[in-house]
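Following up on my earlier thread - several people asked me to post the actual chain instead of describing it. Fair enough. Here it is, all 96 residues.
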Amino acid sequence: MHDDNLKKINRVLGEFYQQNKLQPGLLEVDVANACKEALGSNLLQYINDISFQNGILKLAISSASLRQELSMGKEKMVELINKQLGTSVIKKIILV
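Reply from S.P.:
Thanks for posting it. Predicted structure:
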């Protein structure tokens, strides 16, 4: 009985998200949270903005030297964040 109710709630919430077009916004929040977890607090102090759209994660970094250093490891960052999310949502990272 409990599993049936859980499935029904998940289905109802899924339909609600689709009908109200909430999925892209929720995905952006999930990506931002996964990014924060994967990158850690030391890097986060230099990140001014995190945005996600159409598989592209944009990170606004305040330090030019850090931006240059991170640009060499973008593929690794994609792997880490996708691993944190549990799915391959991020296709590309742009550092600005």
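The domain at 23-95 is CATH 3.30.300 (GMP Synthetase; Chain A, domain 3). That should answer part of your original question.
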